[in-house]
Amino acid sequence: MKKVKYLFLLSIILMCCIELLSFLSSKFNFLIFNEPPFIYEKSKYQSIQNYWTEKEKWGAWHNNKLKVKHKKKCFNVVYETNEIGARDTSFREIKSNDVNIVLLGDSFTEGYGLDKHEMFESHIEKKLENVNLLNFGSSKDFGILQYFIIYQNLAKFYEHDAIVIMLLPNNDFKDNDLDYFRKYKLNLFDGAERYRPYYLKNGDNYEIYYPKNFKKTSSKINLFIKKHFWFSNVLRSIKFIYVGSKVQKDLKKTQIRTKVKKKKVFSAYLSTPLSQQKPGIAYLEKILKMNLDKKIFLFSIPLYDDYLVIKNNDIRKKIYWWKHLKNFQNKYNNFYFFDLYDFANENYKKLFFPEKCDGHWNPRGNKWAGEIISDILRKKLINY
Question: pTM of the prediction?
Answer without folding.
Answer: 0.89
